[in-house]
Design a protein that fits this description.
Elements (H helix, E strand, L loop, with lengths): L22 H14 L3 E7 L3 E8 L5 E3 L5 H7 L3 E3 L22 E6 L10 E6 L7 H31 L10 H12 L4 E9 L2 H4 L3 H15 L6 E2 L2 E2 L6 E6 L2 E8 L3 H16 L3 E3 L2 E3 L3 E7 L14 H17 L6 E5 L2 H23 L2 E10 L5 E12 L3 E3 L1 H10 L3 H15 L11 E5 L10 H12 L6 E6 H5 L2 H12 L3 E7 L16 E4 L1 H7 L3 H16 L3 E5 L6 H8 L3 E3 L7 E2 H9 L20
Parallel strand pairs: 14-15, 17-19, 19-20, 20-21, 21-22, 22-23, 23-24
Antiparallel strand pairs: 1-2, 1-6, 2-3, 4-5, 5-6, 7-11, 7-14, 8-9, 10-11, 12-13, 16-17, 16-24, 16-25, 17-18
Helix pairs in contact: 1-3, 11-12, 15-16
């Protein structure tokens, strides 16, 4: 074995990959050297052109050309090779391993298998002096090879488990745990870091087709690998390449090393991400945009402090994720929207976490209650149904408005418990709100997240069955923009409709595909956005559009609701247009169930003409 300097690069797919030197293997080689009284021992893996000594004793080399080692010959025999004196044997005296100042004269090598692996390493012992090696010695070498095989099989399983724990299965990139570990290793050297966390826009819609989703992820990962180390001025900074990780759900993270200029480099990183993702991906005839939101955080900014005492890898990734949330929440028109973490984001996140905990407790304790807002038949002036709206009366803060806690519930895992709490109470109360054998309908709002739940209809059917309420008296409201984003949402709508529920497209006219895909939605109702009702009496053009919506709905056999009616002038205008129902403060504010029952009791005909002045005001409305 010639002592060639270990500077040769490993070949791709080196058979030694997945194995590493450890104390157990080193002890085994020590035992082999002492048993046979030789100065050199090794376990060698042979690649197409290179030989790698996974672990060695006395050899002074870890890698050399395959042709320069006797292990190549040992592997060819299949049963092992013993060379007692290479200089005296014509077959070996000119071999590269037997020539030169460090020529070997004695060599004994035995190939062995590793259970579950295609690799066939060679356990060998060697000396620069000739030696005898009788058959019992070869048997003993075989016993040591069996021990090496078992050890390497166990080691491979452990290394594989460790790698899987730190690797994303779909892309082969680091996962969050692996990235944090790698960031910590780089932080240990005292280097400052910048982490960019990015999420592809509209990922849920892309991921509906698993094959398409995998293809988009693979291409995005491939493009992100083109991003090199941070630039300093016009030149690339030295140092290791960025760390790239896949965090799941269309989200990636990239970790960079740098110095005090990291905060200034954040804009550059955002620009490079935009550059590599800019071109659309065409996959199986479909075109996908790789537009993304990006959150960035550094160990030198946001009041975090740099150096070894700064934040851990997990902390810096968490801060980049907070910045990503802010970028997604405040998305503009840019191809890549980015935000750099700062201290106020952390304060906001802590406040949000506190509010989330309080919301969870309030849902569990029943402090979040449904409010019932009347929906009136514009022809008969009778109350036809109620929209159910969430109201949260905090014991210390007072009313928390829906535009605060509904998005919070959607960002966490609380939207389904919140919906179930409201729906259960409202549906069970519905029979008590009927009069003259007329059962009003309830209109419940669905979140876009629920539209990806294949069991949603079963749960609502169960609530109706428990309360003895026919499913056709439950209307489910979905916003046009949520439905337009996802084919899976349309499939959910069909399942809900098949279960007997009536579907209402809410805020109609504000989405992106109102007319082109309306015929694909199994809806029975259209509710126009409040913006139309407010403007219709002031702008003729808005009134014309609202009238056209009513006409379109009639031709499609759809019923209509005008939302947000507040003034005496608006009601007759929408009656004349032919809208079926009206909703708004003109008819009644959202009322908790006790107030609604009192309101009913105060009316001679609870289902008769609406009385605008009689609905009580509530702070949470």
């Amino acid at each position: 074995m010639n002592p060639i300097a270990p500077s040769f690069p490993l070949q791709p797919r080196c058979p030694a990959e997945g194995f590493e030197a450890d104390e157990g293997l080193e002890a085994l080689l020590e035992l082999a050297a002492e048993t046979f009284e030789v100065p050199m021992a090794a376990i060698t893996f042979l690649g197409p052109a290179r030989a790698r000594l996974l672990v060695e004793r006395g050899c002074g080399v870890r890698e050399l050309p395959r042709a320069a080692t006797f292990c190549d010959r040992a592997l060819a025999t299949g049963s092992g090779l013993v060379i007692r004196d290479a200089a005296a044997e014509a077959a070996f005296r000119d071999h590269p391993a037997a020539t030169g100042a460090s020529a070997l004269r004695f060599y004994a090598g035995l190939p062995f298998q590793i259970d579950g692996s295609d690799a066939t390493p060679v356990l060998c012992v060697a000396d620069r002096r000739s030696r005898d090696f009788p058959a019992p010695c070869l048997r003993r070498l075989g016993q040591l090879a069996v021990q090496a095989s078992r050890h390497l099989a166990l080691q491979r399983d452990l290394l594989l488990a460790r790698r899987l724990a730190h690797t994303d299965e779909g892309t082969g990139l680091l996962n969050a745990r692996g990235l944090c570990r790698a960031l910590d290793a780089r932080r240990a050297s005292g280097r400052d870091l910048l982490v960019a966390c990015l999420r592809l826009h509209r990922w849920n819609a892309v991921a509906e087709g698993t094959t398409a989703g995998d293809g988009v992820l693979a291409e995005a990962a491939n493009r992100l690998t083109r991003i090199g180390p941070l630039s300093t001025g016009s030149a690339r900074a030295g140092g290791p390449p960025p760390l790239l990780a896949s965090l799941g759900r269309g989200t990636f993270a990239i970790g960079f090393e740098g110095g005090p200029e990291l905060a200034d480099a954040a804009a550059l990183v955002s620009g490079e991400i935009a550059e590599v993702l800019r071109d659309d991906l065409v996959l199986r005839g479909q075109r996908f945009s790789l537009a993304a939101a990006v959150g960035l955080a550094t160990t030198t900014g946001g009041g975090l402090g740099g150096g070894r005492s700064g934040p851990s890898g997990r902390e810096i990734l968490s801060r980049a994720s907070l910045a990503l949330t802010d970028a997604r929440r405040n998305r503009g028109a840019g191809f890549v929207e980015s935000r750099l973490f700062d201290a106020p984001m952390l304060a906001k996140a802590r406040a949000s976490a506190t509010l989330e905990s309080e919301l969870r407790a309030s849902i569990d304790s029943g402090r979040v209650q449904p409010a019932f807002q009347p929906i009136v038949d514009l022809t008969s002036s009778r109350v036809a149904g109620y929209e159910i709206l969430a109201r949260w009366e905090h014991p210390e803060r007072g009313p928390i408005f829906p535009d605060v806690f509904i998005p919070l519930a959607e960002q966490t895992d609380l939207i389904e418990p919140l919906f179930a709490c409201l729906a259960r109470t409202a549906i069970h109360a519905l029979p008590s709100l009927s009069a003259d054998r007329h059962l009003p309908f309830l209109s419940l709002n669905l979140s876009k997240l629920q539209l990806h739940d294949g069991t949603l209809q079963d749960r609502i059917v169960g609530l109706c069955a428990d309360a003895g309420v026919p499913t056709h008296r439950i209307h489910l409201e979905l916003t046009e923009s949520d439905v337009a984003e996802s084919g899976e949402a349309t499939a959910t709508m069909h399942r809900l409709r098949a279960a007997g529920f009536e579907l209402m497209l809410d805020d109609f006219g504000t989405g992106t595909s109102s007319l082109s895909s309306l015929h694909d939605y199994p809806v029975q109702w259209l509710k126009i956005d409040r913006g139309f009702t407010v403007q219709a009496t002031r702008r003729r053009s808005v009134a014309i559009v609202a009238d056209a919506v009513a006409d379109l709905a009639r031709k499609l056999n759809l019923r209509t609701v005008a939302e947000g009616l507040e003034t005496a002038e608006e009601v007759p205008l929408f009656q004349a247009m032919g809208f079926d129902m009206g909703q708004g403060y003109r008819f009644g504010r959202p009322m908790p169930l006790p107030a609604l029952r009192a309101w009913h009791a105060s009316r001679a005909d609870p289902l008769g003409g609406w009385l605008p002045a009689e609905t009580p005001r509530h702070r949470a409305a």
